[in-house]
């Protein structure tokens, strides 16, 4: 219950009570931004109200301000957003442990035991290995495998496409496919492939490029798609074999 209160106070502070102009001002003025300290004060006050603990109020106020100040010096990238939120949650976890009673200590002990069991569990390790493969390893293998075709049409793939969109689409489709194999939802994989095919068909019908170039692009995407789905399927089947 206590951690939920801390989490709710954080979500309200960072995502409900923080206008966009505050973030912009903080990123532009850094430590000179009044909104940086106002936002940190709101974070601390809410945490203090929700927990009724003055020490928690001070800890959250100081750390929230410091973390946001650090983030203001970083580029506006997703990775820094994740790091920022992780650090905030780490502080909340510390506060939760600090205010802990016997029940919370028991929860932490049980959590440690669960983590230890998972680290020695064959099924868990097989699933994690599978996800690592389809997310990172498969991406590199596919990129190297289709590089010979990519080099031939690289100049035509820039255009209006989003930066690294193909990479993220591939990671997403392999992750989803791998998960669907693990839960025996092969029909859903067919729907996923069909949906991607429809999107590609629409792109093809609206494309202004000549037929030869369009065919080359289509073949390139088709090869990449088949490799992506194929590797995810094989990885899923391999992991399921280990789980049996």
Tell me what the structure shows.
By secondary structure, the protein is mainly alpha-helical. It has 11 helices and no strands. The protein is flat, with a radius of gyration of 24 Å. The chain folds into 2 domains: 2-117, no CATH class; 121-243, no CATH class. The model has no long low-confidence stretch (mean pLDDT 86). Helices cover 84% and strands 0% of the residues. The relative contact order is 0.08. The longest helix is centred in the C-terminal third of the chain and has 33 residues, at 211-243. Helix 4 packs antiparallel against helix 5 (78-98), helix 7 runs antiparallel to helix 9 (165-182) and helix 7 (122-145) runs antiparallel to helix 11.
């Amino acid at each position: 219950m206590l951690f939920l209160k801390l989490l709710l106070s954080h979500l309200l502070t960072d995502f409900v009570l923080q206008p966009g102009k505050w973030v912009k001002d903080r990123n532009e003025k850094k430590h000179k931004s009044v909104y940086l300290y106002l936002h940190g004060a709101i974070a601390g006050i809410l945490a203090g109200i929700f927990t009724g603990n003055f020490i928690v109020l001070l800890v959250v106020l100081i750390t929230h301000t410091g973390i946001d100040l650090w983030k203001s010096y970083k580029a506006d990238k997703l990775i820094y957003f994740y790091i920022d939120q992780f650090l905030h949650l780490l502080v909340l976890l510390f506060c939760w442990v600090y205010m802990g009673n016997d029940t919370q200590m028991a929860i932490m002990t049980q959590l440690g035991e669960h983590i230890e069991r998972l680290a020695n569990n064959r099924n868990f390790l097989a699933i994690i290995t599978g996800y690592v493969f389809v997310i990172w390893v498969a991406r590199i293998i596919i990129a190297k495998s289709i590089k010979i075709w990519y080099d031939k049409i690289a100049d035509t793939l820039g255009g209006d496409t989003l930066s690294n969109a193909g990479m993220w689409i591939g990671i997403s489709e392999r992750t989803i496919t791998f998960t669907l194999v693990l839960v025996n939802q092969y029909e859903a994989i067919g729907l996923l492939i069909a949906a991607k095919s429809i999107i590609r068909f629409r792109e093809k019908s609206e494309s202004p490029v000549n037929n030869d170039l369009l065919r080359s692009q289509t073949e390139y995407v088709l090869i990449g798609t088949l490799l992506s789905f194929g590797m995810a399927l094989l990885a899923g089947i391999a992991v399921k074999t280990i789980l049996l």
